[in-house]
Specification:
This protein has two domains: 293 residues, TIM Barrel (Alpha-Beta Barrel); 123 residues, no CATH class. The protein is globular, with a radius of gyration of 23 Å. The protein is built from twelve helices and 20 strands. A hairpin with a 2-residue loop joins strand 1 and strand 2. The chain is α/β, with parallel strands linked by helices.
Amino acid sequence: MSINLKPLKMSGKEVLPLVEGGKGVAVSNGESSGAWAAAGGIGTFSAVNADRVDENGNIIRTVYHGKSRRERFEELVAQAIEGGIAQARIAHDIAGGEGRIHANILWEMGGAERVLRGVLEGAKGLIHGVTCGAGMPFRLAPIAAEFQVWYYPIVSSARAFRALWLRSYRKYPEWLGAVVYEDPWRAGGHNGLSNSEDPEHPGDPYPRVTELRRTMNEFGLQETPIIMAGGVWFLREWTDWLDNPEIGPIAFQFGTRPLLTQESPISDAWKRRLRTLKEGDIKLNRFSPTGFYSSAVYNDFLHELYERSDRQIPFVDQPTADHDTPFTFGVRNRTVYVTKYDRKLADGWMREGFTKALPTPDSTLIFVTPEKAREIRADQLGCMGCLSQCLFSNWMAREPWTTGRKADPRSFCIQKTLQEIAHGADPDKHLMFAGHSAYRFAEDPFYANGFIPTVRQLVERIQTGD
């Protein structure tokens, strides 16, 4: 079928309305984003702890030498800036002047503003736009205006955009390139699902996007595109969004499909795993140390987190009517009180080898093996401050440098696992972010017989409607 896909002017140039989604920690890099731009669209490299490279183009893996979290945090920021500049240069060279190059930043990453400024300063003229989500990036607009690049906030509701506009963006309308609507139920990675929305019942994106358009029109942004992100696979399924006055100018973001391309930097094992996914294999969960919901493949890594939280009982410090059974744990032999029923559960878990009880900030105990307890403790001690606030380690990237809450052992070190999977580790043993349409790799005839397209072949295929 024919798709009436009209070019749009974004980031100062007419391009295909096809955007590569920026996938954090080295999964969208200069090679993949440069190839997407070379094909006529908008390529997006991740400036979230991007890979540094040596003079031969080989990746320099991150090693932290600082003894304290603050020392390691400074190393992380410096290396992130260096890596972002390196990936921008690679993308620029591959694009050859075609398309546009964007950098993706997570506002809730540690040192986000410093990293963004450092990358834009060191890669002047190479980056045309900045996409930014994971939080409320009020400072995005003035920074973009300062460096004269376009900004692309990622929102999941009209209400979020209204708040951003009224507080900040209305002062810099000329640099607003587009608004990215990222569907909170269907997109991969971290999701902007609010507490009032049911994670088990996905909403229809159409009324949410039309509400966003009405809000934008109210602010005089009729010609500013919306970029639909999350759940987009075949454009033929979105034809009623094209030339639709309720939607207005529209582009489409692809985050999951570019994973399975020749330029994608993920491992062959990860690419093979994508082909085996079935509908429902991607789970929306609340384990991330960011506090956000996130979507990832249900694998051994996620399974262990679910089981870890299932082996959980509440406790109190003083005996009460129902919490009257003592339980002693830890190297200091701390005694707390649980119910008789929960004590029986705990005894059963300990007989199975989950002998270490770890307290959580919610006055509960989880039960893990001694090996897992040592791993959790080592990861917490090794924190490098990759988030502005971390539930897992209680780090906070400003004075007093701690959230003041107990570190939560039900979560995990997100920097560690994302670095590992991005650089060749077993994808079943680490956090494997993916959009909820990833199961379609196994069903789409385009990928039959093990075919892995180039980015250009994928972009051409998308333009056909498939």
